[in-house]
Specification:
Blueprint lengths: L1 H6 L24 E7 L4 E7 L1 H7 L19 H12 L3 E6 L7 E13 L2 E13 H17 L1
Antiparallel strand pairs: 1-2, 1-5, 3-4, 4-5
Amino acid sequence: MEAYWRSKCQDGRLPSRQDIDPAEIRRLLAHIALIDVAMDGDGFRFRLVGTKVVQQLSYDPTGQDVTEGPGTGKGSPFWDFLTAIATDLKPGSIELPYFGNNVSFGSIRIVGFPLLTDGVIDKVLLGFSFAGATEMHELKRWIRQSKNVI
């Protein structure tokens, strides 16, 4: 996703929403979200959320203000992450504890990319990946067992 976003940066200009062609990133669509940015103090709103993200979160935040989600309100790490992208106009990433209903997940890794219109940020493109709690617990158990053998 980062390589795609960077390919849309032309002549020192950050891409706009119109530069992003869903047909070019078809395999990523289920794993992304598009956030509306209102820098006048209103915050952020989920414009579009991919089907895999909805499935893995166990709810659909499409159309919701970011402050309506669990652990996503003002002052949360997610809010600060979005604010940093909107302010710095640079890509970023964050790993957060998983907060949905699916007990097989342990964390969420999110990458974000600013999108501008007429030189002003108005969207953030997000990519989501979910790390399994099961795999994390198995790795920790294996490490503990390995220490006992040594």
